Amino acid sequence: MELPSISPCVLPPDCDALRAEVREFLAQALADYPVAKRVRNWSGSDPAFSRQLGARGWIGMTWPKRYGGGERSLLERYVVLEELLAAGAPVGAHWVAERQSALLLMRMSPDLLAPEIVPRIVRGELCFCIGMSEPDSGSDLASIRTRAVRTDAGWVVNGRKVWTSRAHQAHYMIALVRTGDAGAQRHGGMSQLLIDMNTPGLTVRPIRNQLGEHDFNEVTFDDVLVPPHHLIGVEGDGWSQVSGELAFERSGPERYLSSTQLMMEMLEVADPGDARQAVALGRIAASYATLRQMSLGVSGMLARGENPALAAALVKDQGALVEQAMPDVAHDLYGGSAQPGSPLDTAMRYTTLAAPSFSLRGGTREILRGIIAKGLGLR
Ligand SMILES: Cc1cc2nc3c(=O)[nH]c(=O)nc-3n(C[C@H](O)[C@H](O)[C@H](O)COP(=O)(O)OP(=O)(O)OC[C@H]3O[C@@H](n4cnc5c(N)ncnc54)[C@H](O)[C@@H]3O)c2cc1C
Known about the structure:
By secondary structure, this protein is α+β, with helices and mostly antiparallel strands. The protein folds into three domains: 14-126, Butyryl-Coa Dehydrogenase, subunit A, domain 1 (Orthogonal Bundle), CATH 1.10.540.10; 129-236, Butyryl-CoA Dehydrogenase, subunit A, domain 2 (Beta Barrel); 252-375, Butyryl-CoA Dehydrogenase, subunit A, domain 3 (Up-down Bundle), CATH 1.20.140.10. The protein has 13 helices and eight strands. It has helices at residues 14-29, 35-38, 47-55, 74-87, 92-108, 113-122, 238-251, 254-257, 260-269, 275-303, 309-334, 343-354, 365-375; strands at residues 128-131, 147-150, 155-161, 172-178, 190-196, 202-208, 214-226, 231-232. β6 (202-208) and β7 form a beta hairpin. The protein is globular. Residues 129-133, 138-139, 163-165, 216, 357, 360-361, 363-364, 366-367, 370 line the site of flavin-adenine dinucleotide.
């Protein structure tokens, strides 16, 4: 799929009607949705809202009709994502499933698992979680120890995952597990399994984040039996499959639009005659425009089947930099004047505490920069 040449700020006119439709829907659906929830952005979740989006055809918009998808254009999908993120809509219940799990299933199990699972994702019915990190394996994912052993009845899984976002709400996990020897390159012997979160032996325990909220979890597996056909793709190819999946995870507009609510609240109170405010907010707006162009470029690469690992790492790294600078800008400009409990104060407080995680989740800054350096041939 070719991406048309576009300006970072102006998409083709046929996207405008869709944007207006999404805005109108969101204005009604979220009329009473408070800033305290909007700031959560794609971390906020509401299964009923996800089903509403599914009914409107706004999940899986570009996917093949055989899976329930809309076969619409990449730019139309981008418009919907932008509007959802800008509104701080509670999309968390289906976000991971749409962003990466369904894509993996369609690519790696097109005739077995995808026809069974993906239409339900399109309808907004399923929440997925990602089981990659373990207590001693985050950046060094190749050192995972959760093991699956093939028996006559299926795969028997034992081990532990941590930091698993939304595991307590998820219907399925896509887990990276060890199924064989790592080999000299350390990247062998790993596979991906589709695991039903209601399987006996699987336990989810909350881990509170520094906001005091329950978003991620510890998940333990004690002889969890997974059906044989829930192996995704090829046994032992887990590493290359996960590398492809991480590109989906790192490239979307949520990597620079998580803190949009804070930007909106700053713009709401901004004094147009104040040069200091104009410069600081203008810098963020300019960064948004650049990141949007980069993020659209990565979407185009994904759609053309190219490997966007380097470009996706750049978008995520630069997006996190902009987002993490935003609370400082807000405190600098409005720290002394924001009324306690006001929308701006609420957005500042939340984003200040949430932002440090932006350069950890989905791969740390140091790891991303290692990928970038390697991709540029610098090491
Ligand atoms: C909000 C949030 C949500 C998350 N959700 C999920 C989820 O749903 N599923 C999931 O599987 N994981 C999830 N994670 C985990 C996340 O992927 C890991 O935290 C991350 O990969 C880092 O791993 P670690 O915590 O083990 O830190 P470590 O890997 O121990 O890293 C610690 C520090 O050392 C640095 N470091 C490590 N190795 C190198 C190196 N080779 N060179 C230079 N520096 C290095 C890192 O950059 C980091 O600063 C989530 C994390 C957060 C914060």
